[in-house]
């Protein structure tokens, strides 16, 4: 199955385009304010004012301030790419391709936001907690896609352990990347994390 390109997707209606525009405006306003004055000082009222919407509109799109920070558009991309990989490709190669594709898009479209989100995940406990909840949701979606490829039941213990090991590894990559000042290429860090999941820890000192 080939990936669906934007040109192949059906055009969005006016209502859906307005929703996307509003979501993007709220997210952009939030990131700008956090960069200027910090996470704790940024309020929903300020975000609404900057985005030129009402506070109730902000809450309609994002139940909490943490949701604005952690929400992104990449889950559908990841799942579509995963389902499009050849059936005989190894799990490690599938995940490397899928994660690199998502990171390439994220870093190309929102490089500063990607870095800011990882930093807030380290510095702000509420954001970190919401990230963990979000990753659990993504993990369930990953399980469903992996179940399609493997023929296993999506709620099998093996798939649950595998999917959440992947998600936990990605969380640690994000934290490590932020804690080290984003000095490394995060795509290389993801490759290293997947190596650990595939082969385990090497014996002896690094």
TrEMBL record:
Q: Which InterPro entries match?
A: Homeodomain-like_sf, HTH-type_TetR-like_transc_reg, HTH_TetR, MftR_C, Tet_transcr_reg_TetR-rel_C_sf
- The record places the DNA-binding region at 43-62
UniProt KW keywords: DNA-binding, Transcription, Transcription regulation
Identify the residues that the record assigns to the HTH tetR-type domain, covering every copy.
20-80
The family database entries (PROSITE patterns) matched by this protein are listed as: HTH_TETR_2
Q: Which Pfam families match?
A: TetR_C_14 (PF17754), TetR_N (PF00440)
Output the superkingdom of the source species.
Answer: Bacteria
This chain belongs to the protein called TetR family transcriptional regulator
Q: Which species?
A: Streptomyces coeruleorubidus
């Amino acid at each position: 199955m080939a990936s669906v390109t934007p040109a192949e997707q059906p055009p969005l209606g006016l209502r859906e385009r307005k929703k996307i525009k509003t979501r993007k405006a709220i997210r952009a306003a939030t990131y700008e304010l956090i960069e200027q004055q910090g996470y704790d000082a940024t309020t929903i009222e300020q975000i609404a004012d900057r985005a030129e919407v009402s506070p109730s509109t902000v809450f309609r799109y994002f139940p909490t301030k943490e949701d604005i920070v952690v929400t992104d558009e990449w889950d559908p991309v990841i799942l579509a790419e995963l389902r499009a990989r050849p059936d005989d490709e190894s799990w490690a190669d599938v995940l490397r391709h899928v994660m690199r594709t998502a990171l390439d898009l994220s870093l190309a479209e929102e490089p500063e936001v990607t870095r800011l989100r990882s930093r807030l995940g380290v510095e702000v406990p509420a954001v970190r907690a919401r990230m963990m909840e979000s990753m659990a949701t993504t993990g369930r979606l990953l399980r469903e896609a992996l179940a399609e490829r493997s023929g296993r039941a999506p709620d099998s213990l093996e798939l649950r352990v595998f999917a959440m090991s992947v998600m936990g590894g990605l969380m640690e990559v994000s934290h490590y990347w932020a804690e080290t000042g984003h000095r490394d290429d995060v795509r290389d860090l993801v490759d290293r994390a997947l190596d650990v999941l595939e082969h385990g820890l090497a014996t002896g000192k690094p």
